[in-house]
Design a protein that fits this description.
Number of strands: 10
Number of domains: 1
Shape: globular
Order of helices and strands: EHEEEEHEHEEEE
CATH architecture: Roll
Radius of gyration: 18 Å
Helix content: 10-25%
């Protein structure tokens, strides 16, 4: 059975945060920042013995290109009872996202040309400012935290990236760029703010992937 939810309904907004995190991980990068402009429609389906599935219609914007919006449908399935497994997410973007090929190449070459590995902290700063040259690093933190949000959300959380506490570029012998992040994730439900360590690999052709992430207090 499916039930329409008002888009302002908390569970709908929580499922939308998961879908956005997943999409940022999948399609974000140093030249693209996806933001939720509007949650248009939400339905919840209870699948017996499996879990709760949310079907969402979203409108997204790219923070670097605010005039253009794209529509997106998403399904977020939270598994019953199991805290350990991430929600299953499927997203379909209707329409084209702006190409970031040029910006990606420029950023990649800039990082590769640095004498010393890039290190930065507190992005944005206490005034909410991000220095222009660190904007791509900030957007890559959206990608990294998108993965963490997708993997660690439940029906009772709404995680969002509060700040990059620290980021350090690590030189590699292959073509990938590596950034070791400490990100602060704020759970809007419990009001907890927790630091996560996330290692992100990125390459203009291959996109992003998280190679490791540790929760606070997890000894792995």
């Amino acid at each position: 059975r499916a039930m329409e939810l008002p888009p302002s309904h908390f569970p709908a907004a929580r499922a939308a945060a998961v879908a956005l995190g997943y999409l940022r991980y999948l399609r974000g990068g140093p030249g693209r920042g996806l933001e939720l402009r509007e949650l248009r429609r939400a339905r919840r389906q209870d699948i017996s013995d499996v879990g709760h599935k949310y079907c969402l219609e979203l409108e997204l914007e790219d923070v670097l290109d605010k005039d253009r919006t794209v529509s997106c449908t998403a399904e977020v399935l939270y598994h019953l009872g199991s805290k350990a497994s991430a929600p299953d997410v499927q997203v379909t973007v209707q329409g084209e996202l702006r190409s970031t090929e040029e910006a990606d190449k420029e950023f990649y070459n800039w990082i590769r040309s640095l004498e010393k590995e890039l290190v930065a902290e507190n992005i944005p700063d206490s005034q909410g400012n991000v220095p222009p040259e660190l904007e791509p690093i900030h957007l890559l933190a959206w990608v990294a935290s998108g993965y963490v949000i997708w993997q660690n959300s439940s029906e009772n959380t709404k995680l969002h990236l509060a700040q990059v506490k620290h980021v350090k570029q690590v030189k590699r012998s292959d073509e990938d760029l590596q950034f070791d992040y400490v990100v602060l994730l704020h759970d809007m439900v419990s009001q907890e703010v927790l630091p996560w360590q996330v290692t992100l690999l990125w390459h203009p052709q291959r996109g992003a992937r998280v190679s490791q992430c540790h929760a606070p207090g997890a000894g792995n």
